[in-house]
Fold these 3 entries.
Entry 1:
Amino acid sequence: VAASSAVDADQLLEAAQGGDRAAVARLLTMVERGGDAAAAVDRVAFGQSGRACTVGLTGAPGAGKSTLVSGMIGVARRAGHRVGVLAVDPSSPFTGGAILGDRVRMGDHALDDGVFIRSMATRGHLGGLAVATPQAARVLDAAGCDRVVIETVGVGQVEVEVAGEADITVVVVNPGWGDAVQANKAGLMEIADLFVINKADRTGTAETRADLEQMLALSQGDRPGGGRPAGIVTTIATTGEGVAEAWSAVEAAAEDLRTTGVLDARRRARTEAELHRVLGARLAEQVADLAGGEAFRDALDEVQGRRLAPWDAADRLVRLGRVPGDG
Ligand SMILES: Nc1nc2c(ncn2[C@@H]2O[C@H](COP(=O)(O)OP(=O)(O)OP(=O)(O)O)[C@@H](O)[C@H]2O)c(=O)[nH]1
Ligand SMILES: [Mg+2]
């Protein structure tokens, strides 16, 4: 199985680089499945990635993230970028599911060969979103997208983490945001390189800006790997007002992080964290394999009969789980 996935992955990536969108989609499906297929894809994509600038974009449900991303795609396309989008929230309009807030504009991008939009389904993937997302981003990167946007709902810990591990992290808030994300406020403050106050057509925009400025003044210098305090821009994503400025701010922040060496430091830390996670996922797969096997049931019998202590049983299973020559 591993050998055939490897051949597949190789050919699929070549096709993807030639502009074959179905090939990109298949590679991402393999990543979502996890296991050997995902490893085979990453083996070929990894060495050809590292060129893209990744942008994590998070915020409360309904903050206007997808509408904003849709507008940003247009701006980035006009600047000549190829754009990949991963939407990791199941209710996102990008899924083409129930909540299609922006059908027309999405339709425009759907016809654009320079844009690839995909919603992530990681149910059943060991290690889940946190393991699959960086690999999926690398597929888009290796396939030629030089800008990769990762949209997540900033509610769960993992979703915020995933967005926070991009090169640049954008936190989308709305006027009066404080109540909606009270519990997560500190976490969002910590990861943001840029705040976008979207829905600026609503009242309370100035107060929200003042609120953010005050919080930023207090948390100055807390950014991972250093970097300047987060900027603040306001947008009305539905009309496009401020969206070009918001994207310019993203690009400017990325450039700043590059020239100050912060980006490099962040990527190194990220790589280390990813290796930890992937190792954990691999070991979890081995545990699942072992637990489903006969040796596990035999050992369990002995433990049930109090002839073998659990730690000794575990040690025996771990030794059995090692394939000779496989480390
Ligand atoms: N008034 C106003 N409405 C907006 C603005 N931006 C987005 N919306 C609306 O807000 C709703 C949610 O927009 P989405 O782009 O789906 O928000 P989201 O953050 O991606 O939502 P989830 O992915 O479900 O968390 C839609 O009805 C949009 O039309 C804005 O600037 N002003
Ligand atoms: Mg969305």
Note: The pocket of magnesium ion (ligand 2) is lined by residues 65-66, 89, 92-93, 151 (CB under 6 Å).
Entry 2:
Amino acid sequence: MDLDISDEDLVFAERLWTWLSENVEPQWLDRCTDYDDYVAEQDRWEKLLTGSRWAGVWWPKEHGGMGATPAQRAIYAEMTARLGAPEGSGKTGRRMLGPAVMRYGTPEQQEWVLPGILEGKHVWCQSFSEPDAGSDVASIRTRARRDGDAYVLNGSKIWTSHAQHATHSFILVRTGTGGDKHGGVSILLIDMDSPGIDIRPIQQIIGMPDYSEVFYDDVVVPAGRLLGSENQGWEIARYIMRYERGAVMVFDTLVRIERHLEGFARSVGESSFHRTALGRSAAKLAASRLLAYRVLGQQVEGGDPTDAGSIAKLYWSLTWLELGKAAQAATGELGLVAEPLTPEDTVLRGFFGSRPMTIGGGTVEIQRNIIAKRVLGLPTS
Ligand SMILES: Cc1cc2nc3c(=O)[nH]c(=O)nc-3n(C[C@H](O)[C@H](O)[C@H](O)COP(=O)(O)OP(=O)(O)OC[C@H]3O[C@@H](n4cnc5c(N)ncnc54)[C@H](O)[C@@H]3O)c2cc1C
């Protein structure tokens, strides 16, 4: 990847630095004592982003984006990571759905979806997983039956992140009737306030009802909301999932891991045993950052993220898990009774937050399968 910095890039970097310095509040995460605070911080950041030109930094100019050069994208990724900017409540739309609509959407869908994301009017969630279809998501049973100019949806989804705050969802549904499970699914773009949708948040152990179970009972969706063609859903879902593991996601997550590392460093004291664990995690985090640059490089050169993003996802999620365990061991029982906003509390949140990261976006085992099959081209049984 060519990351030579031009004069134009330096001007970009200066403008971005000024804007971020004026707008990012570095301690925003520490201020969050509950889920509502967290959501409010994400909303605050989303408003700032979408009220500026920076929301479109990853998007091409023809779709309302900034059309940033490769070097500028790297500068953006690194700078927002360094200053610890939040992800923003519209991240799923900006990072995952937007690129898919640019590629597969009709002109009408592009005119509706893309400005809605860039202007902060719509918040999208991803509705793929079901109780018996997570890793094997092509086995979904939520069905959309064509009825005249509409589809009628019935079924349920689970683990839908921030469903209760989303205005819209891209949902993977079964439309085919044949035996080919991959060939019989489609993606629909739905309004979350449609009659027949019942959202039930799931309370997590750290008090964040971040995911929901969502039930669909005769939900009517206009046929014009089909993304791509009928039964093309598996191809589009894979495209979206590659963006889910792509460069922009990796940099943001690394910042969150860095914050937990800082919490660990504050609570670890002088114990050489724990300081060794701290050093090991710091080194692995540095390696994760280099992997993130590799993913960014491939994304910039090839246009779309590749399955190689799975290598970075595998590595950073295992690094976070190891860090979470080490930090929890170092704080001992204090870490289990921590008061909010103490170093032990940061450690506790990091510990409980690490395991889901080895599952969301595809589990460790699934990433290994992808790397074996699609990156290394190993024979499969
Ligand atoms: C933080 C987080 C956010 C999420 N957000 C969303 C979201 O917004 N939208 C959404 O649709 N879903 C979301 N999910 C759900 C997530 O995609 C699924 O949890 C994940 O794909 C695993 O599916 P499962 O939970 O059904 O586990 P299962 O698929 O039942 O897996 C159970 C175990 O079996 C292993 N396994 C399964 N198949 C294989 C195989 N072929 N080879 C080897 N091992 C295998 C798995 O690795 C795992 O250890 C989220 C999950 C998390 C944790």
Note: The chain has a mean pLDDT of 89.
Entry 3:
Amino acid sequence: VLAAGSWKPIMTIFALASGKGKAGVSLVRISGQGALAALKSLGVEGALQPRKAYLKSIKNLKNNEVIDEALVTYFPAPNSFTGEDVIEICIHGSIAVLNNLFDYLSSLEGLRMAEAGEFSRRAFENGKLDLTQIEGLADLIDAETAAQSKQALRQMQGQLSKIYENWRFEIIEILAFIEAYIDFPDEDIPQNLDIQMQEKVAKFIAEIETHISDKSGERLRDGIVATIIGAPNVGKSTLINLLAKRDIAIVSEIAGTTRDSIETHLDIAGFPICLIDTAGLRESEDKIEREGVKRALEKAENADLKIIVFDAAEYPNFNRDAAKLIDENSIVLINKIDAKSLPDDVKINGVSAISISANKNININILKDKLKAEVESRIQLSESPTLTRKRHRERLLEAVKYLHKFITARQSKLPIELCAEELRFAAKAIGKITGRIDVEDLLDKIFSSFCIGK
Ligand SMILES: Nc1nc2c(ncn2[C@@H]2O[C@H](COP(=O)(O)OP(=O)(O)OP(=O)(O)O)[C@@H](O)[C@H]2O)c(=O)[nH]1
Ligand SMILES: [Mg+2]
């Protein structure tokens, strides 16, 4: 069988679909036209009813040895993950059994081990999933928190695609409308329709821009970055260890203990956060420590949230370098209140500080609640799906640019054909997000429902 365009035979592929390493049961997938033949070569005879599991003996027919007992299910094309014929084999997850099976399958003609992502690629090529859905699937597999998996599932189910496909469809609808006029060159678009068209495009621009401005989807996918920063010895590393419930950073009474940034991932009420401990801020003769301080400041600058830590002993003259960093994205902490008690509402640079003791576990719940509130306000899972990758944002910005160009071109009364090109580019840019770039196909579809009546 030859694939259109590429002239490479479409091989039947197989791979372990479940996790690597020893397991009670592992899932092996075979996909392609030769899937049933492969099953036959495994000694499984007789017709299998679709989507029914059968307990079968799996054999190497070349040496007549039984490989394992397995549950075998057949998913005939196109009703499978890849859209091809798929066989799923649930086999004991023993490294020896799997190696045995894979060696044998590799020795069969027309069969080979799948490359990374090849099943999903076939699913895309066969129109089973679009690109955003495949990204959703990948994110779902990588999801570490409840909110992340919810977002990924939504994207995998095609909710994000739906938004983009709608925009693309509506843009192409306008395009079709214009093309209908181009086909009748002696007629100008009536002015009121022209204005309506521009208003519609302006409405798309506004909608897309609102969608682009929502960063919560990306933050939820990547996690909120929170950097712990402050003078040396204030207890930053003690705090990260406490929050992570693990000894990830060295703690000592020597100022300048932490030199490099240390990252850890936390789940705060279902939301992912990447917490970074940094070197204490101070002037230093030591080259390595200076580099550490430089990195600390960079990490703070790039963070979504700064957790700025002071030592209660500093009261009332808090470290200036750390205080300078306080802004609206900061949580201000005064640590070691077990050693020195402070008045109730201490403010540093006008921001109320939370007094804690990382060592004695005082007020840590208040800190956690504050952290949770700050994280939630930044990655609230919104009602409508939000973009989750830079790639989406870039393509949408491109679309907006062309939509603007369309309006400008209309207003300067450029020939309608030229204006239409901008819409075509806008639709293409959006189409690249889902991988559906067939402007012409869609035009045909829209035209077929057109009644021009002339
Ligand atoms: N009394 C008291 N001591 C604390 C508290 N938290 C940390 N310490 C002590 O303060 C010292 C410094 O703690 P670290 O966590 O290493 O401080 P750091 O801010 O990471 O310091 P650098 O890495 O040098 O910047 C250690 O001896 C800790 O045990 C606290 O809440 N109360
Ligand atoms: Mg430290």
Note: The chain has a mean pLDDT of 91.
